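quick one, two chains, predict together pls
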Amino acid sequence: MSIELILSFVKVLIVFMMILQLVPLLIWMERKGAAYIQDRRGPNRAALFGIFRLGGIIHSLSDAVKLMVKADFNGAYVYKPLFIIAPMIALFVATSTAAVIPFAEPLVLGKITFNLQVADLNAGLIYVFAMSSLSVYTLLLSGWASNSKYSLLGMARAAAQLISYEIAMGLSVVTLFLVAGSFRLNDIVADQGAMLFHWNAFRLPLSFIIFFTALFAEANRLPFDLPEGEAELTAGYHTEYSSMRFALFFLGEYAHMIVGSLIVTMLFFGGWHIPFVSSEFLRANTMQVIHFLWLAGIGGTFTLGAALLLWWKKRRHFWGDKRDLEHLIFAILFGALGAALALAYALFSDAVFPVWAQNLFIFLLQMKVVLIKTLFFVSVFIWVRWTLPRFRYDQLMNLGWKVMIPLGLLNVLLTGIWLLVK
Amino acid sequence: MFETIIFFVLAGMAITSALLVISRVNPLISALWLAVCLASVAGLFATLGATFLAVLQLLVYAGAIAVLFIFVVMLIDLGPQALKMRLMSFRNVFATMATLYFGLLIFINVARFSHGDLPSNQINVTPKILGQLLLTKYAVPFELASLLLTVAVVGAVVLAKKKL
């Protein structure tokens, strides 16, 4: 067992768990987003110990428990081997796509260089496409093995849709290769730099629009969710699934959204770069940045604690049971956190941190930036889902073949001319 | 050591799935095993250090061509009559001979090359080098291959459409 092997196992675990752990949060975001768009309150009932509701996040937890203990039912006419494999492929494809995504710049700790990217492939972006092209198998196998008409129809729609939109997606990133001169995601991110208007979304807006639209179709999200259009097909290709196998499809869909958003962040929105703050600036002024964020953290936690305290004071008899205490407990917790940070600042504000700690700080900061951008795009996914109505099938195909693909070709041509003239 | 284990696992997968492709009764299952076979060959490319080739193999063969096969097979309605077990018959002596011949060829080649060191992980075919070769030295064969594909597409359309 060499150190590299262990490190790569650790990386695989970190990336995989990070994506899986984001899924319950996303389901909560989806439910709350849907509720607020439709002028409802959304999930807010389930509570831990009768006190903590966390704005409805606990519902995701009870959902997971429910899905795991539910009866795992096989239809009488299903073809079992493929029926079982299909949901596994869904999750495998969605998570393994994340293998080439660089979450931050390499972290240097003494002699070890830790790069939170499972595989730094030369053909990084092509790998993403190869993996996402395998996701058709999920739909094909589940649709065929279920031996149900709804599933088969959903499968036929899904496969045609995925194959059509893959072409538009592939064409839209050709311009990125032209501009960056490489398939490697690291190169594409580094090429964009920290200037906001140098990011690919601003340099190549047409590519971004085509890519993002095709991503919706690839992830089977509304307005392109015809494979599972519940009004016509019950649930499309996963009609016959129940319990944890259904949950795997669910996890796969959300993981697909997360990975898709990560890729959009990398390709079009500068990856780990903070707008107008270059990595060199960060490395040169790490201590100042730490102090700034430290003070901001103190201020933020105190403000949050005070706001929660006011909230609790206003509505302290609203429920008439233990749930009323939630805001008070969190107000105290945030206040304590702010106090601890302030105390630490008072004690250690003069100390200069060692180099490895500064490097670790920058690494974590960049990871945070990537995650914030990713969550923004995920919320765009959710926002669009509850805003736009579903396409009709012929409209979908027309959009894919007659609009997006010619636009993609035109885009490649225009970018080529622009690069020649420049 | 680790790579050798991975190589043998992938090679075994490739051979087993290739055998299953030709021995399964249901053409759909055959097509699925074909996809597995192509994917494990992609894995073999990756262990040899040709990641770009591996990824392309996955994208083009496992992701597009095998999917097309499966899609077409699924849309053909296969009755129970079509799903009879196909047995190898002794009339196909020629096929047996050919199999033996290729088996021998593989055996001899394996025996010959087993001593030499394969330059694994040293061939670093970057997309850049590949692209330069395709557009300079091998430009004509490259274009001819695309012409061949166009001919195939046109032929398919002509065959499929009764009235043009």
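The CA atoms of residues 52 and 416 of chain A lie 57 Å apart.
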